[in-house]
Amino acid sequence: MTQHQGPFDGTGEPLPGSDEVEVEWTGGVDPDLPYDESGLEPSDDDLRVETALRAGLEEFELTDEDLHLVDAGELTLEEDDEAHTRPVVAVVGRPNVGKSSLVNRILGRREAVVEDVPGVTRDRVAYDAEWSGRKFTLVDTGGWEVDATGIHLRVAEQAEVAVELADVVMFVVDATVGATDTDEQVVRLLRRARKPVVLVANKVDNQAQEADAAVLWSLGLGQPYPVSALHGRGSGDALDAVLDVLPEVSAVAGAYPRGGPRRVALLGRPNVGKSSLLNKLAGEERVVVDNVAGTTRDPVDELITLGDSGKEWRFVDTAGIRRRVHQTRGADFYASLRTQTALEKAEVAVVLIDVSEPIAEQDIRVVQQVIDAGRALVIAYNKWDTLDEERQYYLEREIERELVQIQWAPRVNISATTGRHVAKLEPALEIALASWDRRIPTSKLNAFFGEVVAAHPHPVRGGKQPRILFATQADTRPPKFVIFASGFIEAGYRRFLERRLREEFGFAGTPIEISVRVREKRSRR
């Protein structure tokens, strides 16, 4: 029999039916007070306790998997491979010509957000792609428009940056419409950039439409390649043409690096300031920011150096989570899926909460999403510069009521617009990741549980009192513990054990997973 405890059950609730257990739990985490790792060295007494408990396990029925956990006490973590810098191919064109559809066709999966309305893609987004054994970085861009204003102007600027940071450009034109004045403007932009260009005539779904593609010779960019991004027709020929002009070594090396730095996902409801925070951290306008909720739709990776340490981090700006994914439609639906994927690829998440509005169910759902994914967590209360004393009083009450179960998460009060206390994000991230990676020696862990159980034993139920036989940490990222017990351990007592684990070993900023395995004594023969 196995019991599992979700990581969100971790704090604040009294132990049902166990008045003899009193626990003082203050909660809250100060990012300026890191945990002292030197306290993890096991003493001789710790080692003797572990040896005695191992010997006692011989009386119980254990599976081969149990024995492996007891002996090894850990699972091997896969290390991230350092990816080499690859040549860059940028996909550009005016809005709604099918750039993101072509990107998905090249990738072989629905990665970029696609919808039958112009302007869905807004930022430049890089993906790892491969064709005929050649690996390269593929960059999707927003639509380029003449005389654009507002958000469309910033989208066009990002597209121009993508051209400058590319080795080869795939210029996509809608063959069913033909060359427009905007297409002519893009051609002039490409000529100034002096980059190799492959002209893609998209939406050529059959042979009868190939004549439409031939008309595009008039653009003066050479042969137009008829392609149907929707059905895949002709895409291979266009990619072969790209490989013909693709350099072996990128001339813009480092523009879209892969691997290496710790990965941070910026999450939150729409319009809480995720993109503004990324731009503030970067010190420049890296991603499009607008008052329109839902400006970001694709996850955007950026390498950013924080603080005086010179340490690089990979931040991922994600689409705002509006509601439950299955209730979301169109571009927002796929943006939500890509946000979840970005979270799974990240190591730590910064959840932004807009303090100018009451904490909503969506905020709690975003936090829960991070915990369910097993990622380290930092909560950033944004727009702090807008608070007055009355709103701050009610905000603190909301935090105590709505987020009582995650008092272990580091908290930073910031303003992405003014930069207030943004520098405190880095130490909070360091603490959360250190906790996420932390491993407790088996002897230290068992000595700790021995002391806790001796002082506060499990309540007697049905005339029986379950005993903790042995404990081990099975994994990190997040920390996962397995407890072998002689009987069922109540959820309240398991929450108590988790609270004490956090108090003793300082798991600030990471969820903890606890699994209890109930094992029977061997039958005597």
Features:
14 helices, alpha/beta, single chain, Rossmann fold, six-stranded mixed β-sheet, disordered N terminus
How many distinct helices?
14
Percentage of residues in strands:
15-25%
Do you know the CATH topology of the largest domain? Rossmann fold
Straight-line distance between termini: 23 Å
Task: Briefly note the structural class of the backbone.
Answer: alpha/beta
Q: Could you list the spans in which at least 5 consecutive residues all have pLDDT below 50?
A: 1-28, 74-83, 113-123, 148-152, 289-298, 325-331
Radius of gyration: 28 Å
Q: What oligomeric assembly is this protein in?
A: single chain
Provide the spatial order of strands within the biggest beta sheet.
3-4-2-5-6-7
Largest sheet: 6 strands, mixed
List the helices and strands and how they pair.
Elements (H helix, E strand, L loop, with lengths): L1 E4 L38 H13 L7 H9 L15 E5 L6 H9 L17 E7 L2 E7 L9 H15 L3 E7 L6 H13 L3 E6 L7 H5 L9 E3 L8 H11 L16 E7 L5 H9 L17 E7 L4 E7 L12 H16 L2 E7 L6 H12 L3 E7 L6 H14 L8 E3 L11 H13 L4 H14 L12 E8 L4 E6 L5 H15 L7 E6 L7
